[in-house]
Structures are given as structure tokens and as C-alpha cells.
Amino acid sequence: MRTENRVSTTTLGVIGTGMVGLGAARRAVDAGLNVVLSNSRGPETLADLVAELGERARAATPAEAASAGNLVIASVPLAAYEQLPRAELAGKTVIDPMNYAPNSNFEVPELDSNELTSSELVQRHLADAQVVKALHNIGPKQLMELFRPTGAPDRTALPLSGDDPDAKKEVADLLDVLGFDAVDLGTLADSWRSEPNTPLYAIPYVGQPPSGLTAKEFVAWAQQAPGVPVPVARIKELAAALRGPAGFRM
Description:
Keywords: Oxidoreductase. By secondary structure, this protein is of the alpha/beta class. It has a single domain, classed as NAD(P)-binding Rossmann-like Domain (Rossmann fold), CATH 3.40.50.720. Helix content is 34%, strand content 14%. An 8-stranded mixed β-sheet has the order 3-2-1-4-5-6-7-8, sandwiched between helices. The longest helix is centred in the last third of the chain and has 14 residues, at 165-178. The termini are far apart.
């Protein structure tokens, strides 16, 4: 099923071809958009993927993907956010699907203390771009299963957050083309509402997991779980019930 291209975005730049970046690229190509893919290893490593995706896809460097995209997904590990090409992303709307998972190799005191959200950290690095948090709380399998035409009774909604209304409208329009409704949660400071360990993260789109799973087992289970449609009203209901962790600005 292909959704109609009703958005000004005709080319989507994708920086990072892990599960999230690749899932978004596949859905974008299926929806009729052109995609410019990039990773840290070089365009030549993406030859097979580009051949699989077809004529709407091509490989490039991260800087080239940033320049080519009307919209750009920065789908790298958060630990690598400072490697994003600032000059080429200046003036762009940048979709941030990155999540913070502190470990011994990457810890940010401002995130640990809730002084900043991870997207505010990314926005600080990309000072001349407009960052919108989106596509971070749904898995690629569910992204490929749950898309529906506009107005479908079982259409799924995805949250987004950002500081610039026009950038958020761009991303909402893109989500519509990809087959999803959008729910605006507010500014980047509000983006904690859909981060890991909140009711809006992953679980609504896969249902309740089996009991007793370790964190690693849950991730493996969620990556294979069938998608569960989540309407706009449910996203709004879950968001309205949230209370911020200590330290977050409300």
C-alpha cells in the first residue's frame, strides 16, 4: 500500500543506517520519496542496500546526505551526535530519533540530572538547524506494519516535539506521507514525555510483553512483535497522564 506524496519533502536525507534509519528509509521509498543514505563507513558500503531499495535511493557521505535532503533524519547513536555535519545541516529541519542510554562510554551529566533532554543537547550542537524529536519511540518492524492512508480508522499516531512550529509542521506532513498521524507534545524541553521508560515509548505499539524479560530480552521481543495500532486519542491520553521526573521543567 503506497501513501500519496502530499508533502514538500521530495528527498529525505538519512544519516546513519542502523535499524531506525534503515526502517525510515524503507518506508520513505515505499511512500514515493527519494532517499539519500549515508553512514560513517562510506557510500561504497551501502551499494547492496541501495540496489535493494531501487531507483529512489542513492548513497552518499553524511555531509552530502545533509545537503541533499529537504528533511534529514539524524539516526546515529546519541554518543556520536557531535559528528553530525553542522554546516550542511544549517537551515534544515532535522529529525532526531536518538535516545539516551547511559553507559560507561557515554554519560552526560546534564541528561542524568534532567537539566536537558537529549534533543535539547542535539539542538545545542546543531544551533543553526531546527531539531524535531520524532520516530524514536516506535520500532522499524512496527513502522513498516502500521502505516495507513489518511483518515483510516485504525491509523497510528506518533508523537513529536520541537521548538519551531514550521519545522514541526514539516515533520508532521512527512509522517502523514509515511502513513501516520502526529501528536505535538510541545517543545524540545517536553520531549522527555516520549523518551525511554515512559508510557509512550515502544509499549503502545507492541502491547504488553511477557513477564520476567530482562532489558535485553525485551528489546529482542519488541523488535519482532506484531504492530498494534495506536490512535491519536490514546497518545494524547498517555501524554496527559505523565508527570515529569524530578528536575525537569514543567
